[in-house]
Structures are given as C-alpha cells and as structure tokens.
Amino acid sequence: MAANPLWRGRTLAVLGIVLCAFSLRSAVASLSPVVDLISADFPVSPAVLGVIGTLPPVCFAIFGLLTPLLERRLGLERVTVLALSAIAVGLLLRGVVSDSVALLGATALVFAGVGMGNILLPPLVKKFFPDRIGLIMTLYTTSMALSTFVPPLVAVPVADAAGWRFSLAMWGAFAIAGVIPWVLMLGRSKTASMPDPAPGAAPVEESDPSDAESVERSSEFTETGPIATSPASRRIFARLARIPLAWALAATFATSATMAYVSFAWLPAILIDIAGVDPATAGFLLSLFAFVGLPASLLVPILVVRYQATRPLFVVGSVGGLVGVLGLLLAPVPSVLWIWVLLFGLVGLLFPLSLVLISIRARTPESAVLLSSFVQSVGYTGTAVFPVLIGILHGASGGWTISLLVVAAVLVVTFPAGMIAGRRVTIEDEWERRHGKW
After folding, report:
1. How far is 146 from 365, CA to CA, in rounded Å?
2. Who has greater pLDDT, 196 or 98?
3. Higher confidence at residue 237 or residue 416?
4. Which of 175, 170, 41, 47 minimizes the C-alpha distance to 104?
C-alpha cells in the first residue's frame, strides 16, 4: 500500500527527531576531548572523572524507568521538550562552571536529558512515521552516528581558538534548536483538529500481515501533530517482564551498549599493551571501530524494515565482533590490528538494529514508549557493570586475556537472544499467544 507523503504535515517532526538525535550523542562526546584543558583552569580529580565516566549508563537506566511516568502525565512531545531543555541547560552550565563539583552536576543534568531522549525517540518515530519507519530510523541513527564523530574532531580546535568553555557550551545550540519544532507542534495542536490519514495508507515495516490493521489504526497524524497519546498503563509495563521477546530485545541492546562502552573506555589501552602501538595509532584504531557505526546507521534500518534482515544482521554483527576479539587475543600483530578492530567494529550493527526493533516490535506508540523504557533501562543497567569489571579483571590478572574473554563470552551468551528478537512478532502478539487478550 502507498505510504503518506513524507513532508505532508511532518516537516517539524522530521527536524525535531533529527535534532534530538544529534543532541543525544554530541552531549556525551563533547566533554572528554577537552578534559585536560579544563584541568588547567581548576583541578578535576580522577575520582570525579571516574564518576563522570559511569554517569551515562546509570542515568540512562534511571531515567529510562522514569520517562514513561512523565510521558503518561505530559505526553511524548512535552517530555521531549523537557529532555532537550535539560540537555541544553546542562550544556550551557558546563561552559560556566568553576569547579569539578559543578562540572559533575551539570554533566548529570545533561545525561538525565539524554536518558529521557533515548527512550522517547523510537516511540516518536513510531507515532509520526509508522508508514516510513525505515527511512526515519535511518535519518535518526545517522544523526547519532555523525554526532559521535564530530565533537571529538572539532572540540579541541574550537577550544584552542575560543576556549574550552565555548567548546563545551556551543553544543547546547543544537538542543535549543531541537526544542523549537516540538514547541511549534504543541502550539498548533491546541488550535487545530486532526484529520484521519490518507485512505489506504499503511505502515511499511517488518511485521506479520496480521498486525497491519492494528498498526495502521495507530498511525494517525496531522498537519499540526498527532492525536494525543493515551495514558500508558502500569499493567502493560509489568507485563513486559513476563514476555521473552522483551528480554531478548533488552539483551540485544545491552550487548550493543556494552561493546561500545567497553571499547571507548579500554580499547586504546588494550591495543597499546598487547600490540605495542603508540597512543596516536591506538586512537586512530578506536576511530576506525566507531566509524563502522556510520554505514550501519544508513543501512540497517532499511534492511530490517524492507527486507526482514534482522537475524542475518545480528549474526554478522555478533560473529564479526567475536572474530575480531579472538584476533586480538591470538594474533595481536600491529600490521593486522586494523583488520581485527574493523571486524570487532561490526558489533556497531547491533545499535541501530536494537532501535529499529523497539519501534516495530510494538503495535502502538504507547506500547513502544514502555518497550523502549524496559529495553533501555535493563540494557543500560547491565552495561554499567562491564567497563568497571573489565578494569578490575585487568588489574587482578595483570593482562587483558581474561578481560577479552569476558567480552567474547558476552557475544556468545547473548546470541540466542538475537535469534528470539529476530522473530517477526510484536510484544502484544507474544502476550496474547501466552496469556490471552492484551
């Protein structure tokens, strides 16, 4: 069936989603490159840096649980404004702090906003673009990938030219810009009624044909905004813990996040110790690892939504990552390190894959909010453990072999979860098959 025109009444939603996605990653990636410059103005202790390093997954887990409560009271769009406002204020405050405690507090505010935004984006895509999930998820994940690369590249040159305070605060402009489309949409929705979608329009996504009608009924949008989301049910959230598909999605997401946080925390040190490369080379190889996420963000949503390639993509990401880790263990030769790092970087496929699945494994935006909260809260809770665990194991063993084996074990243990997540059913289908009416 024909999809609705992309820009008809949804231009603001496209801009809002893309700017929100960009703000989530740039907020996280803009601090570490200028920490040394900050330390030249006031002391930033290793303890504070350690807390800042563990804040992202902890805040993401906590606010992943709180966001549905806010959404139930305020609605998706208002909570999105709240999340972006928190990010913007936190980023601006980071540019004016005068001590490490204030820096920590401003950063916590940033990550609180990011934690809410992480939960909100998949349901926003589901709500405004049920007929073009693949395309919008591609724009969304590509924006996140770009905002991972850009801040580290420009943060130091901008700090050298205009100071580290400006380098940190300037990213708040994107969050402020991201607020504007949602505020405009909220203002218009108060003064306009909402027509039904074009006759015959239906979502084009990876799902069983039996789900098409239920998804189509949830796909209404207008020139001024969507129909208000009905209050999310605590009963539905509790049901997710009894659905294997929800746990499989959480495990898949946790694997993706764990690989990313462990790599950004420890991969340069691992490469320096096991292969004897210099820090500049190790930094380049880390960038190579991260670069895989860019083509992945372009291709994965389309391959999943149009070609039902969930399981093949999960296999490529997991097996490729496992081969890369084994290569680092068995043949840490400087001349071939780039091959192992590139293969390990294939785990980057799992991040956009997880986000797409959150959108298409729920029938309605309301369910997608709760599923996003469950998956990301559980996932980030598990992720918070592993960077610390890897460091403890390295300190106890004096080497990286045990740590790398743990990373490999995570990929092996969660493989069945990826196969379950690849089943073309929704959480509602799973519940109804096991327990009756949703």
Report:
1. 26
2. 98
3. 416
4. 47
Count of Cβ atoms closer than 10 Å to residue 108 Cβ: 16
Q: Which two tokens stand for residue 414?
A: 């969660």
Can you tell me which residue has the tokens 């996420």? 293
Q: What is the mean pLDDT of residues 288-295?
A: 84
- Residue 433: burial class (beta carbons within 10 Å; 0-12, 13-18, 19+): exposed
Q: 174: burial class by Cβ within 10 Å (0-12, 13-18, 19+)?
A: buried
Q: How far apart are CA 418 and CA 244, in angstroms?
A: 12
Residue 207: the pLDDT is 41
User: Taking the CA of residue 265 as centre, how many other CA atoms within 13 Å lie in the half-sphere pointing to its CB?
Assistant: 25
Cα 126 to Cα 33, 206, 253, 393, 426: the distances in Å are 35, 13, 18, 41, 13
Residue 236: pLDDT band (50, 70, 90) is: confident
DSSP string over 147-192: HHHHHHHHHHHHHHHH-HHHHHHTTHHHHHHHHHHHHHHHHHHTT-
Sign of the C-alpha dihedral computed for residues 74, 76, 81 and 82 taken in this order: positive
Question: Cα separation of 102 and 93, whole Å?
Answer: 8
Alpha-carbon distance 129 to 135, whole Å? 9
What residue numbers bound the domain in which 25 lies?
Answer: 11-231
- Does 178 share its domain with 268? no
Question: What's the confidence (pLDDT) of residue 9?
Answer: 64
Is residue 35 packed enough to be buried (19+ CB in 10 Å), middle (13-18) or exposed (0-12)? middle
Rounded to the nearest 10°, the torsion over CA 295, 29, 117, 363 is 20
Mean pLDDT for 345-362 is 91
Residues 227 and 339 placed together within one structural domain of the fold:
no
Residues 38 and 111 in one domain: yes
Give 351 or 231, the one with higher predicted confidence: 351
pLDDT digits (tens, 9 = 90+) for 123-143: 898 888 888 888 888 888 888
pLDDT for 41-71, tens place per residue?
Answer: 888 876 777 677 778 888 888 888 888 888 8
Rounded to 5°, angle at Cα 261 from 154 and 326: 115
Number of independent structural domains in the chain: 2
- Rounded CA-CA distance 210/431 in Å is 15
CATH number at residue 161: 1.20.1250.20
- How high is the mean pLDDT of the chain? 83
Residue pair 124/13 in contact (Cβ under 8 Å)? The answer is yes
Confidence of residue 320 (pLDDT cuts 50, 70, 90): very high
Residues belonging to the chain = 438
Q: Which two tokens stand for residue 249?
A: 């999605």
0.70 exceeded by the pTM? yes
